[in-house]
Write a structure and sequence with these properties.
143 residues; alpha+beta; Beta-Lactamase; four-stranded antiparallel β-sheet; 4 strands; globular
Length: 143
């Protein structure tokens, strides 16, 4: 049985800025007006970036996705799939403060969760694509 990923020290602002910039570049390249949220390892907001013309509702959703990725230690896409699958997967909907929509990813450095990224504003798979660009920037900086 594999051990769960531990929580590490929270992400610093400079690292959060690099991740958000990479995610924002992906959104800009596709013309997608989104909100990008970066939270620390305690699910506290570190950085919020709202593109011009991004819908206001995406502010809370992006923060929720980022916090969910940290709290649940997994991509929110997995929770999205559980709900979509129905049956016992619908129990996810009863979890307070959990956003079960693709677009949230944990940020992992040195084998520990240092935060999460959440994106909202386009389709869930597109939000996930943008978040993945942010994660990639963290991985490249860590190698």
């Amino acid at each position: 049985m594999t051990q769960p990923i531990p929580y590490g020290p929270g992400i610093d602002l400079e690292t959060a800025k690099r991740i958000a910039a990479a995610a924002g570049k992906e959104a800009d390249a596709n013309g997608w007006p989104v909100v990008i949220a970066i939270v620390d390892s305690g699910a506290n907001l570190v950085l919020l970036h709202r593109h011009d013309h991004a819908q206001l509702g995406s502010i809370a959703i992006a923060q929720g996705k980022a916090a969910t990725a940290v709290k649940m230690k997994r991509p929110t896409r997995l929770l999205d799939e559980a709900v979509t699958g129905g049956g016992s997967g619908l129990r996810v909907l009863a979890l307070d403060g959990i956003v079960p929509m693709e677009g949230g990813l944990p940020l992992i450095k040195d084998g520990a969760i240092i935060g999460g990224i959440g994106v909202s504003g386009v389709t869930s798979p597109q939000d996930g694509q943008i978040a993945a660009a942010g994660v990639k920037a963290l991985e490249e900086a860590s190698s």
